[in-house]
Design brief:
The structure holds 2 protein chains of 2 kinds. Chain A is an all-alpha fold. Helices cover 77% and strands 0% of the residues of chain A. In chain A, helix 5 crosses helix 8 and helix 8 runs antiparallel to helix 11. The N and C termini of chain A lie close together (7 Å). In chain A, 36% of the residues are buried. Chain B is an all-alpha fold. Helix content of chain B is 76%, strand content 0%. Chain B has 12 helices and no strands. In chain B, helix 7 crosses helix 8 and helix 11 runs antiparallel to helix 12. The longest helix of chain B has 38 residues. Classes of the chains: A mainly alpha, B mainly alpha. At the A-B interface, helix 1, helix 7, helix 11, helix 12 and helix 13 of A face helix 6, helix 7, helix 10, helix 11 and helix 12 of B.
């Protein structure tokens, strides 16, 4: 187990290093001089040069690269070109809001998706199955901002159940949850659509196994077979997919945060894009990569919890 | 004797034709196995037709402003209402379909081409090539595609070409994965071994013999990824990284409509439905086909 974790950590480090390298070169190689972008094309050559020195763009590329890598390691992610505050502070400031939203939507997605998927598989080719399949396919056809806009139209504007703008941070726990509800429902239902589909197909595969037939032949109640024998075995593909769809979840959280005007990484990255805040963008890509690498690691470790037969070697 | 066998043997072109026809037959069988695919295809074809005939069908000029008819709710003259500049929403949706479809088809077309090539080469040669190439693909795959697209478009500037580049970049790794798996299983079959024995070149085996066999899988995933590409394009436009206004794009229309959502809900509603219909029809199409060609599900229908 320890050897496995060390190995996975090593792999995670390599991935992180590779992505950091790509990030660095994407930001540098793509056309557009950051100094020119910040000061405008009317700026004098002297002020451009001065800004390049301030941004550390005057030294050779390889030196910039090593400074960047070293900085990432010690938590010095540079200073925002717009606000002048350290990038890492700005990111850590909004990270909890995004994590809260994604975790809430993951829980919701699993709470809806797994039972519906299992039910759909058990009732294969019956009406519940068709309904669940169409609903889940529809769910994953929604661009996150479209569903967010529709939810907002219906629940906040039409029914007035939820606040239109969920940005107020003070107020009690109830207010906090009310602000979280619609964004989490939006992300959670899309996640549920993905989870339903995997849970269904994983369940179908398990239901065809010999040991299920044996269990039925010896007269075990069907509900117990599902709960005790099938569910656990069907969970591995579900966990894999949740890990794989993290990228989609992150993309969707950006859109959701914009529609609901919620503070978080999404609003931060869009602000950085609009203002061409290159150091901030670089930092955002680092944090996204860190999240992805960490979640993949967690996913791998979860397999062992679900299925003790999996040996980490 | 030798002359006889020369004439009896089909030409190289004929082999290729047979292989392509086999691939197509596979796709059609898949269609018939799952009727919802036909429905998805029908809806998608209708949308393509609307987009092609936009100049004929659209009742108004999509960028023609008419201040007197600002923010009109849907009525007989403007079925889907008008926007802040008095432009006809229906006409803008019809014209916007062109942008969505063009970007989607071009992005997925090129991603399919490049990704399949990468997967084919990695799977065919195996060994170290495979490990290195797929490791790079996995790293790219791990990164959230919307964020990658966001950054590429923001840096290159929003134009049709740049959006195509950004979206296809995010779709190359999945196609490489999709192409690689069947390549590995096909390359171990006897007919490929026979090809080796006959001294066929690697490229002839890859493109003439393996490619036609893996084509159905790749094409089916193409329709699912086209749905994703259209969704991503709309998302980027919604964030403000779409093709520049006044060109109508669905995502851009929702963005503008969102600013007037409190009093003019139709502005955001109708383009939302347009995106939903197209993406859903493509998902129906691809999903049905995938079930049909999935070897694990064979014989269960």
């Amino acid at each position: 187990m320890t050897a496995f974790i060390v190995k996975r950590l090593g792999f995670a480090a390599v991935t992180l290093f590779a992505v950091l390298t790509i990030v660095f070169f994407i930001v540098r190689v793509l056309p557009g001089d950051p100094a020119m972008v910040i000061l405008g094309d009317q700026a004098s050559e002297a002020s451009l040069a001065a800004l390049r020195v301030r941004l550390g763009l005057d030294v050779p590329l390889y030196q910039q690269y090593f400074e960047f890598l070293g900085g990432v390691l010690v938590g010095d992610w540079g200073v925002s070109m717009v606000s002048g505050r350290p990038v890492i502070d700005e990111i850590l400031n909004v990270l909890p809001a995004t994590l809260e939203l994604t975790i809430a939507s993951l829980i919701l997605g699993a709470a809806v998706g797994i039972p519906v998927g299992v039910w759909s598989a058990v009732r294969r080719n019956k009406i519940p199955d068709y309904l669940a399949r169409v609903a889940s396919l529809l769910g994953l056809s929604f661009p996150a901002f479209v569903s967010a806009v529709l939810l907002l139209m219906f629940f906040s504007i039409q029914l007035r159940w939820f606040p239109v703008i969920s940005s107020s941070r003070d107020g009690g726990i109830v207010e906090h949850l009310r602000n979280l509800a619609l964004p989490a429902i939006n992300l959670g239902l899309i996640m549920a659509a993905y989870i339903t589909r995997v849970a269904r197909s994983a369940m179908l595969e398990v239901l065809n196994q010999d040991y299920v037939r044996t269990a039925r032949a010896k007269g075990l109640a069907f509900a117990i077979i599902i709960r005790r024998h099938c569910l656990r075995n069907a969970m591995i593909p579900v966990v894999t997919v949740v890990g794989l769809y993290l990228g989609i979840l992150i993309g969707n959280s950006v859109l959701t945060e914009i529609v609901f005007n919620r503070p978080g990484l999404g609003k931060l990255i869009v602000g950085a894009l609009n203002q061409r805040d290159y150091t901030m963008l670089q930092g955002m890509m680092v944090i996204y990569t860190l999240i992805v690498v960490l979640v993949n690691l967690l996913t791998d470790l979860t397999y062992g919890l679900i299925d003790p037969r999996i040996k980490y070697s | 004797m030798s002359v006889q066998s020369q004439t009896a043997r089909p030409s190289r072109g004929a082999y290729f034709r047979i292989a392509v026809l086999n691939g197509l037959a596979g796709v059609i069988r898949a269609f018939n196995a799952n009727k919802t695919s036909w429905f998805g295809l029908g809806v998608f074809a209708a949308v393509c037709l609307l987009a092609l005939l936009a100049p004929v069908i659209a009742p108004y000029d999509p960028i023609d402003q008419n201040i007197l008819f600002r923010l009109k709710p849907p009525d007989a003259a403007h079925w889907f209402g008008t926007d802040y500049y008095g432009r006809d929403t229906l006409s803008r949706i019809i014209w916007g379909a062109r942008i969505s479809l063009t970007i989607g088809l071009m992005a997925i077309g090129s991603a399919m081409l490049i990704g399949t090539l990468i997967g084919l080469v990695a799977g065919y040669f195996g060994g170290r090539t495979d490990i290195i190439v797929m490791q790079i693909m996995d790293v790219l795959l791990a990164f959230p595609s919307l964020i990658l697209g966001l950054i590429v478009v923001a840096m290159l500037g929003p134009s049709v070409t740049n959006l195509v580049i950004a979206i296809s970049l995010t779709a190359i790794p999945p196609f490489a994965r999709i192409a690689r798996a069947p390549t590995i299983s096909v390359k171990n079959r006897e007919f490929i071994e026979a090809g080796h024995a006959l001294g066929y070149s690697h490229s002839r085996l890859m493109f003439g013999h393996i490619l036609p066999n893996i084509a159905p899988e790749v094409l089916v995933m193409g329709s699912l990824w086209l749905a994703t590409a259209i969704r991503v394009e709309a998302s980027l436009a919604f964030i403000g990284l779409g093709v520049n206004p006044p060109t109508p794009t669905w995502g851009g229309m929702i963005r503008e409509g969102f600013e007037n959502i409190l009093d003019s809900f139709w502005l955001a509603l109708f383009p939302s439905l347009a995106i939903l219909i197209v993406v859903f029809s493509l998902n129906l199409l691809g999903d049905g086909l995938r079930d049909a060609i999935d070897p694990r599900l064979k014989g269960e229908q």
